[in-house]
Amino acid sequence: MDAAEKTIHCKNEGPELCAGEIVKTIIDKYNADIKVGIVGFQPAIINNFSKNLPAQNLKVIDLDKENINKKNMVCLSGMAEKWRKTFLKSLMLF
Description:
This protein is of the alpha/beta class. The protein has one domain. The chain contains 3 helices and 3 strands. Strands 1-2-3 form a 3-stranded parallel β-sheet, sandwiched between helices. The protein starts with 13 loop residues before the first helix and ends with a helix. Mean pLDDT is 75; it is low at 75-79.
């Protein structure tokens, strides 16, 4: 896609610091009542959002069945048509 150049993965305490900045930026820009949908399990980002948003305002979808029902998270497993439709419908109902 060539959308970004010279990117690096965070390590050590980097993911938590980065996630904190992401959440702060989004909440500052859109307010603390924003509804967020995350595609892909990103623990640091999800944990930071779950500390700052009501549970009903955070939806997560992931392909890994191991991530279903993690604490403070709503995870739908797989991209089967039923789940994809459910997830998209739930985002529209936000």
